[in-house]
Design goal:
This protein has eleven helices and twelve strands. It has helices spanning 10-21, 38-41, 54-61, 80-97, 119-131, 153-159, 177-189, 209-220, 231-240, 245-259, 278-291, and strands at 2-5, 26-30, 45-48, 66-69, 102-108, 136-142, 144-145, 161-164, 172-175, 196-201, 206-207, 225-228. Strand 4, helix 4 (80-97) and strand 5 form a beta-alpha-beta unit.
C-alpha cells in the first residue's frame, strides 16, 4: 500500500497517476474526495481530512509501505516553521507507529545556505524531522518551478508583464512540476533503496527572467517583458493577497536567498538534469492557460 498526500495538487495528482499506472494499491489523503477525478476515485482508498491531523495520518498510514509527502501551501500560517515542521509532526510520529518503510517528500534546493531562506529553511527542517524518525527518506529537492509563472497569467494577458523580486538578468535553474513528479514517483515505486538522502531536480538549463520573458513572447506571439518588483512592494503585495506577515516575509527571504546563490549550491549533473525545457513548458502548459 502506498499513501499519497495532496492527490489533487499539481505534483500530487501526477505522482498518483504514475502509481496507478504501475498497478500499485493506493490510498490518498484528501480534504474533499469530491475533488478527485472520477476515474481516480474508483481506483483508490480515500481518507478524508488534513495530513496535519493525527487521527487522519493514523488511519492513512496503517498497513502502508510507502508515503508520498508534500505539504500544501498555507499563506496564513503563523510562521514558515509552523507551516512545514509543525504540520509534519503528527505524520512523523505516525510513520514510526505504523512501521512505514519509505517516504518520498517534496523539498527544495538550499541545504548548507548560511542564512534564513524562509520557506526553504523551514522545508529543510521538515526533512530533518522526517529523516530523524529512522524511516528511509528521500527529499526531492527542486529548483524554482516553471509552473509558478501560471500565477501571472492575468498579468501576461492584460499587461504583457511578468514580475519578480529577482534581477532580470540573474540566471538560475528552473524545472517543470511534471518532471518533479516523475522523479518522485520513480523513487516512490522503487523498493530497493534504504537510508536518508536527497535527490536534486535542476531542470535542463539556467534561465533569467529576461530569458523567460523573451521565450514567452516568442511562444505567445505577443510582447511580454520582465519587471523587477522592489522587495518591500513584493512583501506588501503578498499581504494584500491574504498572506500572513510572517509568510510574506518568508517568501521574500526565500527570494533574497535565491538571488544570493541558494540554488547554485548543487552543481548540475546528468543525473539531476530533467528534460522539460522552458520553451516546451510554455508551448504545452502556459500557452493553453493564457489562451483560456
Amino acid at each position: 500500500m502506498i499513501v499519497i498526500t495532496t492527490p489533487t495538487g499539481n505534483i500530487g495528482q501526477q505522482v498518483l497517476r504514475h502509481a496507478l499506472a504501475a498497478g500499485e494499491r493506493v490510498r490518498v489523503i484528501v480534504r474533499d474526495a469530491s475533488h478527485l477525478a472520477a476515474d481516480v476515485r474508483s481506483q483508490v482508498e480515500v481518507v478524508e481530512g488534513s495530513h496535519s491531523d493525527p487521527a487522519v495520518v493514523d488511519r492513512a498510514f496503517q498497513g502502508a509501505e510507502a508515503v508520498f509527502w508534500l505539504v500544501p501551501a498555507d499563506r496564513k500560517a503563523p510562521s514558515a516553521r509552523a507551516a512545514y515542521v509543525d504540520f509534519a509532526r503528527p505524520a512523523a510520529m505516525a510513520l514510526v507507529r505504523h512501521g512505514v518503510k519509505r517516504v518520498v517528500g517534496i523539498s527544495a534546493l538550499g541545504r548548507g545556505f548560511a542564512r534564513d531562506a524562509g520557506h526553504v529553511t523551514a522545508t529543510l527542517a521538515m526533512d530533518d524531522l522526517i529523516a530523524a524518525t529512522g524511516v528511509a527518506y528521500r527529499a526531492v529537492c527542486a529548483a524554482s518551478f516553471m509552473d509558478n509563472v501560471l500565477r501571472q497569467v492575468a498579468s501576461i494577458q492584460n499587461l504583457g508583464v511578468i514580475s519578480s523580486p529577482m534581477p532580470g538578468n540573474f540566471k538560475a535553474p528552473t524545472c517543470a512540476a511534471r518532471d518533479i513528479a516523475a522523479v518522485a514517483a520513480r523513487w516512490l515505486l522503487d523498493r530497493s533503496w534504504t537510508g536518508s538522502g536527497s535527490v536534486e531536480v535542476m531542470g535542463p538549463e539556467d534561465l533569467s527572467f529576461d530569458d523567460m520573458a523573451a521565450t514567452i513572447s516568442q511562444v505567445l506571439g505577443k510582447p511580454v517583458r520582465f519587471q523587477q518588483t522592489p522587495d518591500e512592494e513584493f512583501r506588501a503585495s503578498l499581504v494584500s493577497y491574504g498572506f500572513s506577515e510572517a509568510m510574506a516575509q518568508a517568501m521574500l527571504n526565500m527570494s533574497v536567498a535565491k538571488r544570493e546563490g541558494l540554488d547554485h549550491l548543487v552543481p548540475r549533473t546528468p543525473e539531476n538534469t530533467t528534460p522539460t525545457t522552458f520553451r516546451q513548458w510554455c508551448e504545452e502548459v502556459l500557452k493553453p492557460a493564457v489562451g483560456s
